[in-house]
Amino acid sequence: MKYSRLIFANLFRKKIRLVLTVGSFAIALFLFTFLAVVRGAFSRNTELAGADRLVVINRVGLINTMPLAYGDRIRQIKGVKYVTHNNWFGGVYQDEKNFFPQFVIDPANQLKVMTELRVPDDQWKNFLADRQGAVVGRNLAKRFKWKVGDRIPLQNALYGSTKTWEFNLDGIYTNDKEGGDESQFWLQWDYFYENIPDVIKGQAGWWVLKLDSPDDAVRVGKAIDGGFANSSYETKTETESAFQAGFAKQLGNIQLLITAIGTVVFFTLLLVTGNTMAISIRERTSELAVLKAIGYSDRFVLFFVLAESLVIALIGGLLGLGLAMLAIPVVGANLNGMLPPLLLSAAALGLGVLLAVFVGVASGLLPGIGAMRLRVVDALRRV
Amino acid sequence: MIRVDGRGDSTSLIKVRGLNKTYSRGGEQIQVLQGLNLDVDKGDFVAFMGPSGSGKTTLLNLLGGLDVPSAGSITVDGDEITHMSASKLTQWRARHVGFIFQMYNLIPVLTAFQNVELPLLLTKLSKSDRRKHVETALGVVGLSDRMNHYPRQLSGGQEQRVTIARAIVSDPTFLLCDEPTGDLDRKSADEIMALIEELVGKYSKTILMVTHDPQVAARAHTTLHLNKGVLVEAKALQEGVLAGGAA
Question: Which residues in chain A (259-318) have CB-CB distances under 8 A to chain B?
């Protein structure tokens, strides 16, 4: 393109300013993309939740348990295909900062309900036969460099006195859904049950049900909660996605916070780039006037200004996105399971490019219109 | 033949009739040009003189289609420009007018070659044709060996030569020079004026020039003074040159 030389020559007129503007663009785009990825991580569990699964918890709260016998009554409700119960284990591996979710599972039904999770048959068979067996997600195994056959000690103070529970790693599960969770630690119900005090035996943390059809969700939910109404342990049944969303909300309205920060970043970027373009154009008033004098139209001048700001935005934007592509996997790996997996999707990258283009055009628009309206006679008189 | 009485014939390249320009400043109306007439033929070289604020640059801006008159008409080579839309006027300027400014007004981040090429980017000329035109224009102003120099690497006189090359590269109908030597020392000014004379004498360019300097004005075929908003013809400096310019 014959005008590219003019556009690029102007860009490199003030190299330090160019570097700073491109740099601020890159950092802002990186931050924006990173926030979008974190936001996506929080909402992913909700998005990936099975439409045909319900979660039953104690109406008082998730940490309150319910009688194990509820399971049999739930199983009898029409439309319920499988039922599995879980408990929170809450052990510590070596150090408290090595947090990861540990669930006591019902081995007979876990994989029937959580159908997207896969454990190799031989490993699952070993787990079923091993009272001290454990199955962990692929990411968790990777994080601690565990392999099948390893002995894993977890210290636990939730159930009676503090003691160390020993586990044999029998299997590693994977998740068929892209970005789905692979960071849990499962242990055998029987091993748990025989090692906890009698006073808390016969209780389950929550149930997860698989339905014959998602259409049954409302009816089954009402039937469960209605059946246990006015009992000592009232239940709250909701879809798995509603449960996940509620769980995420317990951390505060993270998504709103992230959206607010992202919006502030976006508008700050718009103002910074717009100001830079305005200064740049003001410095070149006489040159723009000369271009107009020798025959360049008002639209051409607008095009030049927009092209310049767009090039800055795209260079900065692509640098920021490149930085995000490099940094997000590293940051994700070092979060130690504190957040769901951070995935930089093509959609997030596309959104970043779109944002860069939008900010590029928007920040160049006002200075461009000013340059377009510039009267040659007035501008030359100012020289 | 240059006339200021409004009686020029239809063959005049530039015909100005009853030109008025009024500015509004602080609520006060200031009439700069009052019913100005002018006829300029092809190949004429005319200098406009007058005190500051007399309207010399305003006249040049009007002739170059950079400003619009309050009343009157300007016709160039048969085209009346006073009623053209802004976009038409821009296209007209690109085709018909070459500007030479006092402060050169080159783009500092472009080389001499790239500066001269600017008007040609608006044409449909191929890259190689553009190169030929630019090399020719820079050759005419004697800067073939400075093509790849940036303005900051050139002297004031050389920068003004680049401006002249930029003005002539698209072979416009006429050139407008606003104090072309105003920022130069005497020696450089003489060189620039020699070049401008060459453009008139050798290449038959029509040139209208504003200047404060009587020595520079003396190099033109005719010097016109702006007095109370109208042009007054000064004495013809050299009858022979006038006759040659009108030929």
Answer: 286-287, 289-298
Q: Residues A370, A372, A375, CA angle at the centre, nearest 5°?
A: 90
Q: Encode pLDDT of B173-206 as tens digits.
A: 999 999 999 888 999 999 999 999 999 999 999 9
Length of chain B (residues): 247
pLDDT, tens digit (0-9, with 9 covering 90-100), for A347-362 = 889 989 999 999 999 9
Identify the pLDDT of residue B245.
Answer: 44
- The 10s digit of each residue's pLDDT in A199-211 is 888 899 999 999 9
> Is the pLDDT score of B242 beyond 60?
no
Q: CA of A294, closest CA in chain B: separation in Å? A: 5
Query: Which among B86, B80, B76 has a CA at the least distance from the CA of B174?
Result: B76
Q: Enter the ipTM.
A: 0.88
Q: Do A295 and B90 touch (CB under 8 A)?
A: yes
Report the distance separating Cα B148 and Cα B173, nearest Å: 28
Strands (E), B102-244: 174-178, 206-210, 222-227, 230-233
Q: Which of B121, B96, B97 is nearest to B107 (CA)?
A: B121
- What burial letters (b/e) apply to A314-352, b meaning 16+ CB within 10 Å? bbbbbbbbebbeeebeeebeeeebebbbbebeeebbeeb
- Chain B residues in contact with A10 (beta carbon < 8 A): 109
pLDDT at A266: 85
End-to-end alpha carbon distance in chain B: 8
CA-nearest of B62, B74, B4, B75 to B32 is B62
What pLDDT shows up at residue B247?
37
Query: Is residue B3 within 8 Å of B15, Cβ to Cβ?
Result: no
Above 70 in pLDDT, residue B240?
no
The distance from CA A215 to its chain's CA centroid, rounded to whole angstroms, is 28
Positions of chain A with pLDDT under 70: 44-50, 247-252, 335-340, 382-383
d(CA A274, CA A359): 9
Distance of CA A214 to the CA centre of its chain: 25
- The answer to whether residues B121 and A2 touch, using CB atoms and an 8 Å cutoff, is yes
Mean pLDDT (chain B, rounded): 89
Minimal Cα distance from A286: which residue of B? B105
- CA dihedral of B233, B234, B240, B243, whole degrees rounded to 10: -10
CA dist B81 and A100 (Å) reads 80
Provide the token pair at A86. 């879980």
Q: Which helix (H) or strand (E) holds A297?
A: none
Report CB contact under 8 Å: A295, B122.
Answer: yes
Amino acid at A104: V
